[in-house]
Each structure stands twice: as structure tokens, then as C-alpha cells.
Amino acid sequence: MRELKNIEDNHISVPISKETAKKLKAGDYVYLTGTIYTARDAAHKRMDDALKGGEALPVDLEGQLIYYMGPSPAREGRPIGSAGPTTASRMDKYAPKLLDLGLGGMIGKGKRSQAVIDGIVRNGCVYFAAVGGAGALLSKCIKKSEVVAYEDLGTEAIRKLEIEDFPVIVVIDSEGNNLYETAITKYSRG
């Protein structure tokens, strides 16, 4: 794990500042604590339709992270069910516009389009990956879950999550370095 300067023990408070995002490098393991929002395909389409119609978004995106996730039902006594990441590329057609509106970053799994990478660089943002298949473990880092918009979308509604020590890996940093590309070079046999 790369030691981060001025970020104590690789723990980051979210929402994320531009200064913090710029310190992160592809391959860094970090733990997020604070507030994030969830949104998947249907919520992204609805936000895009709202913007096209001149309406305000249901949440202020400034510095926020969107976690591409739709949870399973919560067990008794828990705020949320299994909460693993979904494939990020499904949101690629919406992400550049949201980044330009102040979104601080995204959490998902899988590769991103060049347009998203360009939006990350242009806005000094970051793309984190959460471990797919570990939704039950990730849910233990979620301390509170509240639907804040588009309740009719069920699991795809926008949720506000309070998280603590949520583990992620920086995949694309604010300079456009992409772990999916550098890891191929580093670990391929020549």
C-alpha cells in the first residue's frame, strides 16, 4: 500500500475535497468515512432527464461520491442489506455531465469510457473500485441508509449512506492514471 501524504493512515472523510482527490494515486487503498449517495442506471437516467428539463437535481453533488449500488433488503437490526458495487460502465453516458456539475467521484467496479476518464481529469476527481462479490462485508461499513429521492425506483432509488472505514481502491486518479491499464503492464509476462 502506498503511503499517502497528509491523509492519516489512508483514511479519507467524504464528501471529498479537490485537494484530497489530487493527492490520491491509482493503486492507493483507502478507507472512506462520512456521507455518500447511491445511484444506478434508472436514477442516473432520471437525473439526466431532470437536467435536460431545466430542473434541479434532488441532491447537491458538490464534492459528493456516488456509489453505483442497489442493495438487497436489510436484515432485522441492520440499516441495509448486501451492498456490493455494480458495473460502472452502465453509467458512463451520464457521468461526465455529473462530474462537470461538481461530483467529486464515483465508486463502482470495472472499466470506464474515455469520456469519463476525461471528465475525471478535467474536474480533478477520482474513481474508486469496491470489491465485487463482497457486498455482505461492505454492508457492515454502512451505518445508516435513507432513501432521499426516486423512492418509486425501489433498490435503484437514490440513498444517502453514512459509512465508516469503507474500503476502496483508487482506480483512476485525477491525472487520468488508470490502475486497470498500469496493472496489465506491471503483471503481464513478457
Mean pLDDT: 92
Shape estimate: globular
Helical content class: 25-40%
Number of strands: 7
Q: The CATH topology is what?
A: fumarase
Distance between the termini: 25 Å
- The tally of helices reads 6
Main β-sheet description: 5 strands, mixed, barrel
List low-confidence stretches: 1-6
Structural class estimated from helices and strands? alpha/beta
CA gyration radius, whole angstroms = 16 Å
**Order of SSEs, N→C?**
EHEHEHEHEHEEH
Architecture, according to CATH? Alpha-Beta Barrel
Q: Provide the β-strand percentage band.
A: 25-35%
Number of domains: 1
Record the SSE blueprint.
Layout: E1 11-14, H1 18-23, E2 29-38, H2 41-52, E3 65-67, H3 95-100, E4 105-108, H4 114-123, E5 126-129, H5 135-139, E6 142-149, E7 158-172, H6 179-187
Parallel strand pairs: 1-2, 2-3, 3-4, 4-5
Antiparallel strand pairs: 2-7, 5-7, 6-7
Summarize the structure.
With 190 residues, the chain is α/β, with parallel strands linked by helices.
Describe this structure in words.
The protein is α/β, with parallel strands linked by helices and 190 residues long. It has one domain: Fe-S hydro-lyase, tartrate dehydratase beta-type, catalytic domain (fumarase, Alpha-Beta Barrel), CATH 3.20.130.10. 25% of the residues lie in helices and 25% in strands. It is built from six helices and seven strands. Strands 2-3-4-5-7 form a five-stranded mixed beta barrel. A hairpin with an 8-residue loop joins strand 6 (142-149) and strand 7 (158-172). It is globular. The two termini are 25 Å apart. Mean pLDDT is 92; it is low at 1-6.
